[in-house]
Amino acid sequence: MKRKTTSTSVNVCSAFPHLDQTSLVHLLKTVRLLRLLRLLQKLDCYSQYSAVVLTLLMSVFVLLAHWMACIWYVIGRKEIESSDPVTWDIGWLQELGKRLETPYINTTMGGPSIPSAYIASLYFTLSSLTSVGFGNVCANTDAEKIFSICIMLIGGEFITEELMN
Length: 165
What we know:
Blueprint: H1 8-15, H2 21-29, H3 35-43, H4 50-82, H5 92-99, H6 114-129, H7 142-164
Helix pairs in contact: 4-6, 4-7
C-alpha cells in the first residue's frame, strides 16, 4: 500500500483557513520565543547577581509592554474598520487622529501614522502597567475598557510579585 505524502505546511494551512500564508508564517515565527525558556534556565545560576536579575525583569517588562501595545493598536484599528456608528467615532485611535489633526475620513483614509499610533499605544500600556495612567490616551469603548482592566490587573500583579520577592 502506497502512502500519500503531503507537505506539513499544507496541513497547517488547511487547519487555519482564515489565515493567509504571510500571517501564518509570522504566527509560526512566534514559536521561537520558546527558546527564552532555555535562556531562563541558563540564567538561573546567575540569579544571585542583582544586575542580571534587574536586566531580566526590565526585558520581560518591555516585552510585555510591547505585546500589550500591539494588542491595544489592533483593538483601535478593528473598531475603526467595524464601521459601527456607536463606537467608530469615539475609539482611542480616532481621538488620537483628531488631536494630531489627521482624522480618519473613512476606514482606509486618514488617521495618525503607524509610528505615531505605536508610540501612543506603548505610552498607554506603560502608563497603565505602572499604574500611573495619566488619561490623555484613554479607553472609550467597551472593548478598550475591558483590555484596560486586564492591563491594570497584569501591571498590579507584576508590581506585587516584584515587591514580594
